[in-house]
Write a structure and sequence with these properties.
Elements lengths: L1 E3 L2 E5 L5 E3 L9 E3 L4 E3 L6 H15 L7
Antiparallel strand pairs: 1-2, 2-3, 4-5
Amino acid sequence: MVQHSSTTVSTAANGSSGPSESADDDLPSVMTCANYLKLPPYSTKEIMYKKLLYAISEGQGSFDLS
């Protein structure tokens, strides 16, 4: 499974691939140059909260300016 800004592509058992059926599977993304947070249209605030916390905790220390 490959995750991009607001589209998740997965390969099914029959070999076909396509966008996810739910934005709830996608992670938020950012454009740091413009201080812009891009959120998929999550179905609930609880899912949005969990996805934001996951993205923040997993992304810590992975973006450094030299």
